Amino acid sequence: MSDIIVFLVSLAALIWSADLLIAQSEVIAKRFGLSEFFIGATLIALGTSLPEMAASIAASWDGHPELSIANIIGSNILNITLVLGMVFLIARRIDPHRDFFAKDSSWALFPVFIFLLMASDGVISRFEGGLLMLLMVAYLFFLIRDGKEIIAEEVEEVLPEDAERIPMGRTLGLLLVGFVGVIYGADYLIGAAQGIAREFGIREWIIGVAMIAMGTSMPELVVSIAAARRGKADMAIGNIIGSNMANISVALGAAALARPLVFDPMQYAFDLATMLIATLMLVFIAANKLYNRAAGITLLIVLGLFVANLIPA
C-alpha cells in the first residue's frame, strides 16, 4: 500500500513540476523575444512529453529497460486512442485550418517505423538513441521552416502578457524547483512502480505500459481536452503528433543514451502492433478528415482492446 501512495504522490509531483518547468521556460523565451510560433512548436510539444522523458530516462538509468520502453509505447497509444478519442467526442465542431495529412502524417509515422526497425534486433543502442534525437531536430527544423502557428494560440492563453516584468530571479528559482521536482518525481515514481510490481506479482512491462503511461499522458489529456472545449481541436491534433514524435525521438533516444535498451520485441508484439495500428488510424482519419464522434468511438474501441489484452485471462 505504501508503494501505491508513493506512486500517486510522485506522479502528481512529476506532472506539477513539469507544468511549472514549461511555464517558466515560456516566460524566459518571452523575455528574450522569441516568437510565439517558436515557443509553441518547441516548448509545448516537448513540454507535454516531459513526464514521459523523465520517467523513461530514470527507468533506463536504473537498469529497467522494459519500464522505459513500455512507458513510451503506452503513452503513444493513449495519446491517440484516449486523448484524441475524447477530443472527437467532446468537440462541438472540428474543422482544422491545417492539413495534417499533407503536412504532418509522415512525422506521425516515421518515428514509429524507425523505432520498430531499431527494436527488431531486441536492443536500442546508444548510437541508435542518438539517431532518434536527430529525428526530433529534423522535425523542429520542419516546423520552423513551415512557418505556421500550430499551437501558438495555446501559449497566448497560458503565458502572461507582462512576462517581461516578472523578475528573472523568481523565474530561475521556479525553473530550478520544477527541474528538481521532475528528476526526483521520476526517480520515486520508478521505484514505487517496481515495488508495486513485486508486491502484486505484476510484470514491469504492465506497470509501464499502463500505470506509468496513463499518468505521464495526463498533460496531453488536460491540454487537448481544454482545447477541444474551446472549439480548437486542431490544437489537440497537432499537440498529439508533436508529443508522440517527442516521446520516441527525445524520450526514448535519451533513455537509450543513458543505457542501451534491451528487450524482447516478440514478447510484446501486441502492444507494438497496437501502437502502429493507432498511428495508421490517425493518418487515415487525417487523410479523410474524419474528425467526428464516430472516429472517437472507434479509437476508444481500440483502447478497450488494448486494455483487455493487459488483463490476465
How is this fold's topology laid out?
Layout: H1 2-31, H2 36-47, H3 50-61, H4 65-90, H5 100-119, E1 123-124, H6 126-146, H7 152-158, H8 168-200, H9 204-216, H10 218-229, H11 233-258, E2 261-262, H12 269-288, H13 293-310
Antiparallel strand pairs: 1-2
Proportion of beta-strand residues: under 5%
Mean pLDDT over the residues: 79
CATH topology: A middle domain of Talin 1
Unreliable spans: 148-160
Let me know the largest β-sheet.
Answer: 2 strands, antiparallel
With helices defined by DSSP (H or I, 4 residues minimum), what is the helix count?
13
Could you give the order of strands across the largest sheet? 1-2
The portion of residues assigned to helices is over 70%
Task: Please provide a written account of the structure.
The protein has 13 helices and 2 strands; from the N terminus they run H-H-H-H-H-E-H-H-H-H-H-H-E-H-H. The protein has 313 residues and is an all-alpha fold. It has one domain: Up-down Bundle (A middle domain of Talin 1). Strands 1-2 form a two-stranded antiparallel ribbon. The protein is globular and about 50 Å long. The two termini are 25 Å apart.
